[in-house]
Design goal:
The chain is 18% helix and 22% strand. The strands form three sheets. An eight-stranded mixed sheet has the order 12-11-14-10-9-6-5-16, with no helix packed on it. The chain has a six-stranded mixed sheet with strand order 4-3-2-1-15-13. Strands 7-8 form a two-stranded parallel ribbon. Strand 5 and strand 6 form a beta hairpin. The N terminus and C terminus are likely disordered.
Length: 360
C-alpha cells in the first residue's frame, strides 16, 4: 500500500505499525453502564477514534471518553469529532446558544458548557498523548521510528441538524494531500461499507470517495453508519495516460455476516461464528488479518470502525507499513484545513460496485 504514483518503496524504508481503530462510542453519561467497551491489553503504536465520541456532546461524556482512552496502551491516540459531537463545531454551537437565548429555550448549557469548553477539554488531554484533530493535515513521528501524514475530517452529508454537516448544494472539498498515509473521516466514502440497514442505500460521500481514489492512502478509517461495520481492501489500477485512477479490484474482508448468525447458516457455520465471537470478546479486539496478494500493487485498507455493531464493542487491530523517519520528523505538526463551504461540482452518482453488497 503506497500513496505515490511511482513504484512502492523498499521494505527497509517502512516500519510495521500496529493500530487500534474505533468509532461511534456514543458515550452516554447517564447510562447505567456508560463505558461498556473493553480495554485491549495488547499494546499498540496508535489508537484512532473516528468520531461520535459522545451521544449528546455533554462535557461529562467527553470526560468519560478521555478516561477510557487513557487506559489504552499506546503512545499516540488520535480523535476526531462526529456529528453528535456538535459542541466541537463552534459556528453551529454558537448559533444554537444564540438562538436559545433569544427564545429563552433551555439547552442544558450547564451540561454542554460554554462555546469552546469541549474543545479546550480535549486539547488539555494532549499531555496524555491524546490529540484532538480538526479538519486538515497532520504529521506525527512515533517512538517505533515511523513518520506519517494523516488527513482528518469530521464532515458528513447533512442528515438532521447536528454538527459538521454539509448539504448537497454546499458540497465539501476533502483536501487530502497526495502523500497522506492515513485518512480519518467520520463518514464513509460512497460505496465503501456505507449501506444503511434502514434504507438499504449508500449513505457515503461522493466527494470523499473521489478524494481517496485520487490520493490512495494506505488506510482509511471511518464510522457513522453503524450497521456497515466491516473492512474492505481496494487495489488500484496504475495511472493511465490521462492521469485517471481506477479501481482494479475490491474485496470485503470482514463484515457483520462473518460474526452474526444467518438464517441459512449450517450448524457448523453457527458454531464457527460463536467460537470466533467468543475469541474476539475474550481478546478485547478484532485482529484483522488479510492476504495482500501482489505486494507491488497500490492498495487501500478501508475500515468502518463503528463499535456499536462490533462483537463485544471491540476495536479493530490492524498492522500497516508506515514510512520510516529520517530523523527530521516533528511530532504533532499540523496543517489546519479551513471549514469547507464551497460547492463541489463532482458527479453524485453511486459507484457501480458497492462493496457492502459483495459476497465474502
Amino acid at each position: 500500500m503506497t500513496t505515490s504514483t511511482t513504484s512502492p518503496p523498499d521494505p527497509s524504508s517502512t516500519i510495521p505499525t500496529r493500530l487500534l481503530l474505533l468509532s461511534d462510542t456514543h458515550i452516554r453519561s447517564r447510562s447505567k453502564n456508560p463505558l461498556p467497551f473493553p480495554i485491549p491489553s495488547i499494546p499498540a503504536d496508535i489508537v484512532i477514534h473516528a468520531g461520535d465520541i459522545t451521544d449528546s456532546s455533554t462535557l461529562s461524556e467527553f470526560r468519560l471518553c478521555l478516561s477510557y482512552l487513557r487506559q489504552f496502551n499506546a503512545p499516540l491516540k488520535l480523535i476526531i469529532a462526529g456529528n453528535h459531537d456538535y459542541t466541537l463545531d463552534l459556528p453551529i454551537y454558537s448559533r444554537i446558544t444564540t438562538q436559545s437565548k433569544s427564545t429563552k429555550r433551555n439547552i442544558k448549557g450547564h451540561e454542554l458548557g460554554e462555546v469552546g469548553a469541549a474543545k479546550r477539554l480535549l486539547e488539555e488531554a494532549r499531555e496524555a498523548g491524546i490529540h484532538y484533530l480538526e479538519e486538515g493535515t497532520h504529521h506525527f513521528t512515533l517512538p517505533n521510528g515511523a513518520n506519517f501524514t494523516v488527513y482528518t475530517s469530521p464532515a458528513t452529508p447533512a442528515f438532521g441538524s447536528q454538527g459538521f454537516q454539509y448539504t448537497q448544494q454546499e458540497g465539501h472539498v476533502f483536501d487530502i494531500p497526495p502523500k497522506a498515509d492515513i485518512v480519518i473521516s467520520h463518514g464513509p466514502p460512497r460505496g465503501i461499507l456505507d449501506v444503511s440497514r434502514l434504507t438499504r442505500m449508500s449513505c457515503g460521500s461522493v466527494e470523499l470517495w473521489e478524494a481517496v481514489k485520487r490520493t490512495r492512502p494506505k488506510l482509511h478509517v471511518f464510522g457513522h453508519i453503524h450497521e456497515a461495520w466491516g473492512a474492505a481492501a481496494v487495489k488500484w489500477k496504475s495511472d493511465d495516460q490521462n492521469g485517471e485512477v481506477g479501481l482494479e479490484s475490491a474485496k470485503v474482508l470482514e463484515d457483520r455476516r462473518g460474526v452474526e448468525e444467518g438464517w441459512k447458516d449450517s450448524k457448523e457455520e453457527r458454531r464457527r461464528k460463536e467460537e470466533k465471537v467468543e475469541r474476539i470478546v475474550r481478546d478485547g479486539y478484532f485482529h484483522l488479518k488479510y492476504d495482500r496478494g501482489d505486494e507491488d500493487a497500490e492498495q487501500t485498507l478501508f475500515v468502518n470502525a463503528a463499535v456499536m455493531y462490533a462483537p463485544g464493542y471491540v476495536p479493530w487491530l490492524v498492522e500497516v507499513e508506515l514510512p520510516r523517519s529520517d530523523g527530521d520528523g516533528n511530532e504533532g505538526t499540523t496543517v489546519a484545513g479551513e471549514r469547507n463551504g464551497e460547492v463541489n461540482a463532482r458527479s453524485r452518482e453511486c459507484l457501480s460496485t458497492n462493496l457492502q453488497h459483495l459476497e465474502l
